[in-house]
Amino acid sequence: MLLENLKTPSLILNVNRMKRNAEQMAARAESLNVRLRPHVKTHKCVEIAKIQMAGNAGGIMVSTLAEAEHFLKNGFTDITYGVPIETGKFAEAIRLAKASERFSVLTDDAATAESLNEAARGENINLDVFVKIDCGYHRCGVEPHAPETIAIPRLITDSSNLNFAGILTHAGHSYHARSPEELLAIARSERDSMSALAQQLKDKGLGVPTVSIGSTPTMSAIDNLDGITEFRCGNYIFYDAFQATLGSCSFDDCALTVLTAVIHRDFSRGKIVVDAGAIALSKDHGAVELDENCGYGRVLDLAGNDLNLRVNRLSQEHGEIEVGDEAILQRLKVGSRLRILANHSCLTAAQHSHYHVLDGEQIVDCWEIRRGW
């Protein structure tokens, strides 16, 4: 099927760019001597995960237990659940762990670890548990120099039915770096704080099987990963307008767009309206610290060429695009097809049920996206 014949809005995956991104990240992880654990929450798709895992024995990370169930059913047996566990999810996590070769959870709370141990003992199973560390993002995790960074690993190590899997962090604040130098500094700080903590734990007699860090921006910037054993990142498989503006990739690396149609043209106001709104693109504000006019995505023509336009406003089903060039406005008639390179590919993908796989000018396949919690 030709791209232009798809119903709009539709999610378009450039399969050749995606495969190239996967190969390049795998090679980068190998060159830095770390295991790569792709975060599949970016795409939630079995076919894509299989491409990422080709020749890679590092397992995957998920962000929901529904994802874990879906990937487990499709042959992925080494899974880390990447959101701090809470009591309401114990039973499901234990069920998944029983069916997996390795199913790891994470926590930053001592009382939760104690309760999880009781639940695991009641089910006669041992669970692998990471301690989440806050290396500067301040979303979740224990501060690296807090006493809990020793106390919680020791508690897990001494538990009857928990295995201390190691320490894990995410430098999400890297997305707010304003320069390559600032990004590199964040990447080095992420590495250094975790390698130093691992050594401190070892000095206290605690084994640290895995030192896990990760984000796509820090992986793009880091110069070495001494002291780190595992790197987790997800967005690299698609990249997006945010990553390209930040400098993690080029715009030619971006593999995911949304096909949309012009549904209204307004010459008096110099704008068009398309049928890709907030529930097709998401309302991520993008890299506003670097480009205050980034809007909600870059507007491309059907062939993928940048028209130097932005999606300026969104409502549920409508996207408004200001068009200052009279010649472009004349060309973009109602029914014209465009493609939007969204700010955040992870959130955009989660709005859709399927990828339409683009190879050249042809749609060659359709791949399911596993949504839900």
- The secondary structure category is alpha/beta
Distance between the termini: 33 Å
* Strand/helix succession: EHEHEHEHEHEHEHEHEHEEHEEEHEHEE
CATH structural architecture of the largest domain? Alpha-Beta Barrel
Low-confidence stretches: none
Helix content range of the residues, please? Answer: 25-40%
What does the average pLDDT come to? 97
Widest sheet, order of strands:
2-9-8-7-6-5-4-3
For the record, the count of structural domains works out to 2
User: What kind of sheet is the major sheet?
Assistant: 8 strands, parallel
Number of strands: 17
Q: Enumerate how many helices there are, as a single number.
A: 12
Describe the structure using short key phrases:
373 residues; alpha/beta; Lyase, Ornithine Decarboxylase, Chain A, domain 1; TIM Barrel; 2 domains; eight-stranded parallel beta sheet; six-stranded antiparallel β-barrel; 12 helices; 17 strands; 32% helix; 25% strand; elongated
Q: How would you describe what is shown here?
A:
With 373 residues, the chain is of the alpha/beta class. The chain folds into two domains: 3-10 and 249-368, D-serine dehydratase-like domain (Lyase, Ornithine Decarboxylase, Chain A, domain 1); 32-238, TIM Barrel, CATH 3.20.20. Helices cover 32% and strands 25% of the residues. It has twelve helices and 17 strands. The protein has helices spanning 15-31, 46-52, 65-73, 90-99, 110-122, 148-158, 180-203, 216-221, 241-246, 278-281, 326-331, 345-349, and strands at residues 10-14, 35-38, 60-62, 78-81, 102-107, 127-132, 162-168, 210-213, 230-233, 256-266, 271-274, 297-300, 306-314, 319-322, 337-342, 354-359, 362-368. An eight-stranded parallel beta sheet has the order 2-9-8-7-6-5-4-3. Strands 10-11-14-13-12-15 form a six-stranded antiparallel barrel. Strand 3, helix 3 (65-73) and strand 4 form a beta-alpha-beta unit. The protein is elongated, with a radius of gyration of 22 Å.
